[in-house]
Every structure is written in C-alpha cells, then in structure tokens.
Amino acid sequence: TIYTYFDNKKELLFSIPKKRLEQFKKEMAGVFDIRDPLRKLRRFIRFQFTVFLSDRNFLKVFLLDTKLNREFYASAVYREFLDYFSVLERIAEEGVEKGVFRKEINTRLFRNLFIGSLVHLTTRWFILEETKPIDMMQEIDEVISLLCRSVVCKEHSIPLTET
C-alpha cells in the first residue's frame, strides 16, 4: 500500500528530509525575530545543530541515506534543502548591508562552509556515539565562534559570544 503514496523507493526516501525540512522551517520562523545580524547568525547556527541532533533516526537517514546519495543532488528535495539553508545567505547579506559583516563575503561559499561543518560534526558524533553532550555543546560553541569571526568586520565591536 505504500506505493499508493510513492512511485518508488527513492521518492519514499526523499520524502523524509522533505517533511523534516518543512517542519524545521516552521520551527525556525519565530526564532529569528532579531535585528542584530551577528546574534541572528549565532542563533541560526545553534538552531541547526539542535534540530538536526534532536532526532537521531532522522539524522541517520539524512546523513547516510540521503546526503551521500548521488540522486539526492539531482532531486527537487535538494533544491528545497538549499532553499532552506538560503536563510543563512540572507543573514550574511543583511550583515554586509548593516556594516557588521565584511563586504567581500561569498554567501554561497559561507553557506557551504556551515553545511560542511554541520554534516561533519554530526556524522562524527553519530558514528562515534561516545561524544558527551557537554563536549558537543563546546564544539558547537567553537563552530559558532569560528564562523562568526570569519565574517565579522574587524572594526565591529559586538562580542562574538552570546550575551
């Protein structure tokens, strides 16, 4: 009966991240009512780690069966994935417009840098399964700090840690 709803296994598999991305978008909608782009960036990064780590079953399917699947990158779901993470590009553009972030930021590359960090760390944590939550939080804080320092203007005096 499952084929009443899906044409094939690939469509079934890709429906999982599609539904989760839709859910993440809804959850994210109220989180970013912040004017300061640096605080918004920190909150966005922390939110992504939180939602991806909140469901280990989804994380397993996403990392092992979706993200490593060549067909994913030719699918409509991949375009939705990029659209979902385009929020990060908009935050970076807003930071540039407000003079908080450096003007020469390549927002696409910055988005990919973040996605790579997210995928690498969550994959490592998922596979090793020996990382303690406190260690994960420290690494997330370090990623936030590194990514923020990579875009913020030198003359910008807002602290890089959450206040």
Explained architecture:
The chain has 163 residues and is mainly alpha-helical. The protein has six helices and no strands. It has helices spanning 9-29, 37-53, 56-66, 76-97, 107-128, 133-151. The model has no long low-confidence stretch (mean pLDDT 88).
Layout of helices and strands, plus pairs?
Layout: H1 9-29, H2 37-53, H3 56-66, H4 76-97, H5 107-128, H6 133-151
Helix pairs in contact: 1-3, 1-4, 2-4, 2-6, 3-5, 4-5, 5-6
State the distance separating the first and last CA atoms: 52 Å
Low-confidence segments, given as residue ranges, are none
Shape: globular
Q: Structural class of the helix and strand makeup? A: mainly alpha
Task: Throw out a few tags for this protein.
69% helix, 6 helices, 0% strand, single chain, globular, 163 residues, mainly alpha
Structure in a nutshell:
Helices cover 69% and strands 0% of the residues. The protein is globular and about 60 Å long. It has 6 helices and no strands.
